[in-house]
């Protein structure tokens, strides 16, 4: 069974080998599979991958067809990851995600999937000094350029679908547009923070068949004021609004209550500030979060936020759907960025080779996707305690031979 899964996976992995065929000592597909397996085990540097290979060489040799006959050096790992084209690894991650989504349960087809867009900068990726600014010392770290990556995360299925780099002299919106255009977004709601509340992003989401829920802040002052004034009208809310409240929630040492109010744009008395947003913006949301510290009873100032959305105001339970989309947006912080930092050491990846770092970032997201798919299997084995991503990573690192079949099945068939 394992050999069949590995052989099928080998046919699916379509990554071009940039090396001279005459000099190839380590075949690309089995070598790349071993590197991915090491990455899932938290070995996120060339040295760590080489050590993982050495420690588990016998098990890998027995299980993976055409596996090399000797251990690999960290220089070879570094050189290989520096040569592989980032677009090839993007294609591999997209194919993996599509397989998993195709094999997902069909019981939730009526529920819109929530996709979250957000950017992140690995702290160790300072690569050159920008021109100085008045009042800022020349040795200030804020003057250093950083590599910046945008991730499209499926909050519903727990998959990082795509990653793109913000290139030199462009903003995050351009990378978001490239990520959006990679997928058919039919049946999804795409969320983003206020930085990406731009017409170009909204148009791209609609063009791909999706809906958007975008944060509204002072980068659109006149529109925000019109929305704020509308929600300040109690009679309008009572007549036309839809309200959803979560009730009391306990978490992170706080007692919290969240309320979401939805209004149709058609019911607003002042639509002029919306300008060309009126083409596809149909609903606005207002969220209020009240929280009290459980330990000392101190109540925080209520947090109030506004959102614009293309979801029709006639949608049943529109306020509840808006709440779910807004709440699920934060999963990209908790389930992707935090895990990449803490479990895959993203902030410690220091390198001067830009293509190597791009591939490392993609491998980390691919490894996180695999680890998240392995969580339920480990939970069934020990139902009293749901395993964390860290425990999955540790298990792969210590005993990879026990998980080889599951990992191969995920790449070959999209299921365990």
Protein architecture, described:
The chain is of the alpha+beta class. It contains 15 helices and eleven strands. The strands form two sheets. A nine-stranded mixed β-sheet has the order 5-4-1-6-7-11-10-9-8, with helices on both faces. Strands 2-3 form a two-stranded antiparallel sheet. Helix 2 (28-40) crosses helix 3 (46-55) and helix 2 crosses helix 13. The radius of gyration is 24 Å and the shape is elongated. The mean pLDDT is 87.
Name the descriptors.
416 residues; alpha+beta; nine-stranded mixed sheet; two-stranded antiparallel ribbon; 15 helices
Query: Per DSSP, what share of the residues sits in E-state strands of 2 or more residues?
Result: 15-25%
The low-pLDDT segments are none
Radius of gyration using CA atoms only: 24 Å
Shape type: elongated
**Number of DSSP-assigned strands:** 11
Helicity, as a percent range: 40-55%
Total count of helical runs of at least 4 residues: 15
């Amino acid at each position: 069974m394992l050999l069949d899964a590995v052989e099928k996976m080998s046919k699916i992995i379509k990554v071009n080998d940039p090396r001279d065929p005459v000099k190839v000592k380590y075949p690309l597909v089995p070598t790349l599979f071993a590197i991915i397996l090491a990455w899932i085990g938290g070995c996120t540097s060339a040295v760590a991958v080489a050590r993982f290979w050495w420690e588990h060489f016998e098990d890998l040799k027995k299980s993976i067809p055409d596996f090399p006959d000797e251990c690999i050096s960290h220089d070879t790992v570094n050189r290989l990851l520096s040569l592989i084209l980032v677009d090839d690894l993007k294609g591999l991650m997209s194919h993996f995600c599509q397989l998993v989504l195709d094999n997902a349960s069909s019981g939730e087809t009526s529920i819109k999937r929530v996709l979250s867009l957000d950017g992140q900068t690995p702290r160790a990726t300072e690569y050159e000094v920008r021109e100085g600014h008045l009042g800022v010392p020349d040795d200030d770290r804020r003057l250093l350029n950083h590599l910046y990556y945008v991730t499209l995360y499926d909050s519903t299925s727990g998959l990082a679908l795509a990653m793109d780099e913000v290139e030199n002299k462009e903003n995050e919106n351009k990378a978001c547009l490239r990520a959006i255009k990679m997928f058919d977004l039919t049946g999804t709601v795409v969320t983003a923070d206020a930085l990406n509340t731009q017409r170009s992003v909204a148009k791209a989401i609609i063009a791909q068949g999706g809906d958007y829920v975008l944060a509204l802040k002072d980068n659109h002052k006149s529109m925000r004021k019109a929305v704020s004034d509308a929600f300040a009208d109690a009679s309008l809310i009572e007549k036309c609004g839809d309200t959803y409240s979560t009730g009391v929630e306990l978490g992170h040492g706080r007692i919290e209550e969240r309320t979401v109010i939805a209004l149709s744009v058609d019911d607003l008395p002042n639509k002029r500030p919306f300008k060309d947003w009126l083409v596809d913006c149909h609903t606005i949301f207002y969220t209020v979060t009240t929280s009290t510290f459980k330990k000392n009873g101190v109540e925080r100032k209520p947090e109030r936020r506004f959102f614009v959305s293309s979801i029709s105001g006639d949608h049943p339970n529109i306020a509840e759907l808006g709440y779910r989309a807004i709440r699920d947006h934060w999963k990209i912080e908790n389930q992707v960025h935090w895990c990449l930092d803490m479990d895959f050491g993203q902030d410690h990846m220091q390198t001067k080779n830009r293509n190597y770092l791009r591939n490392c970032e993609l491998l980390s997201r691919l490894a996180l996707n695999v680890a998240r798919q392995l969580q339920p299997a480990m939970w069934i084995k020990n139902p009293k305690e749901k395993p964390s991503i860290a425990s999955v990573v540790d298990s792969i690192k210590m005993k990879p031979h026990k998980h080889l079949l599951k990992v191969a099945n995920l790449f070959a068939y999209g299921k365990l």
